[in-house]
Amino acid sequence: MKICYIVAMRAEAQPFIEHYGVKLLEGFFAPLPCLCYHASIQGSDLYIVLNGEQHGSDLIGCEAASVAALSAIQKIQPDLVVNSGTCGAFLSNGANIGDVYLGSGVMFHDRRVAGDDEWGTQALGNYPVWEGTADLAQRLGFKVGKVTTGSSLDMQPCDEEIIRQNHGELKDMEAAAIAFVCSLFKLPILLVKSVTDLCDSGASTYEEFSKNLALASERLREANVRIIDALV
Ligand code: ADE
Fold it and tell me: How many domains does the chain have?
């Protein structure tokens, strides 16, 4: 089995990279900035793909996630894609900093196309997630929630309206873009999300995110090790 993780920020992947002692495959995606790490685990192949850097920082957001997902899927031909990363969540849904969720659904929350039904449907996305998600969450004791993706870290009232209308619980910047690419290839995607900030806490999102990034990334490592143990 080939499992391909796609991770936006190095900080989110580093504990996990160190845990498995994965090896960098030099030049794998050249000339793209994406990086590919690989390890063999009990006869299965684990790939960890990072979006890479531009302007001196990790590439976050939908454009970089789509490029990494398309390139990774075409070159690696994985059986399962996993997007592991941090997210915002909501106090009003009982979320806590550091909680790990598996995504029960995924859509965009900032692609506002008013009017015609088909265009509106395309804008929201609502892509399938791996059908084993609910069982895995129950078996390993993870929460589940719907992920909504947008291009900004902050949450404008128009974003919040779409998130609430669609029962979104986890706000990120990549999951729907990766799920979109997976949907084109009919490939299953598992979403593993750890909470760095609470969108309805009144605190500055950037400050909460920065303060909790290391904790949430360590929680991602713990979760992903348990998930990989369950899958291979
Ligand atoms: N990643 C971590 N926290 C986030 C938030 N509040 N919105 C979007 N992406 C995030």
Answer: 1
Which residue do the tokens 């309805």 mark? 200
Ligand 1 atom closest to residue 152's alpha carbon, by position in its atom list? 8
Q: pTM of the entire structure?
A: 0.97
Ligand 1 pocket by C-beta < 6 Å: which residues?
Answer: 86-88, 153, 171-173, 196-197, 199, 205, 209
Test site for ligand 1: of 90, 172, 215, most ligand atoms within 8 A of the Cβ: 172
Residue type, position 123, single letter: A
pLDDT-derived band of residue 12, with 50, 70 and 90 as boundaries? Answer: very high
Indicate if 12 belongs to the active site. Answer: yes
Quote the pLDDT of residue 117.
86
**What distance in Å separates the CA atoms of residue 54 and residue 51, rounded to the nearest whole number?**
10
Residue 19: both structure tokens together: 């845990």
CA distance 13 to 31: 22
Q: Which domain holds residue 106?
A: 2-231
Rg (CA), the chain: 17
Q: What is the mean pLDDT of residues 49-55?
A: 98
**Would you call 159 a catalytic residue per the annotation?**
no
